[in-house]
Amino acid sequence: MLRRSYGQTATVGQIPELTRNQKLVLEVISRARKLVSAYDILDEIRPQGIRSPVQVYRAVKKLIQDGTVHKIESLNAFVLCAGPHAHGQGAAILAICERCGRVAEFCDDIIDRRLAEGAGRQSFKIEAVSLELSGLCADCLVEANATL
Fold it and tell me: pTM of this prediction?
């Protein structure tokens, strides 16, 4: 079972047409309780014969295209998508905890609309959107306030 945020689960079999490498990479990302880099993934799947970061990056690229995985651009790391929701056409907004590395994912129609309007005013065609918020999750915020 692939564990997704917010208690949702999926099985590797539910994701269409994955190669062996893509399945291995997806399983590692799914089990992770935090962001994982390509090298973290490689360390875990090396015993299965994956030897090169290029193999990991190829697998991750397909998983990103399928909407199964998000890339955290600012950290060059990966996280499992929270599940089926409306960001198929819009932006996934990723809130990244600076302390523990947890990622909360949400979407917002108003932000999507404003991005499209702004791009339209500039005659710009949006190909991809990456919105990352950096701060503290609720648990880490409680801990931080307790130490003050």
Answer: 0.80
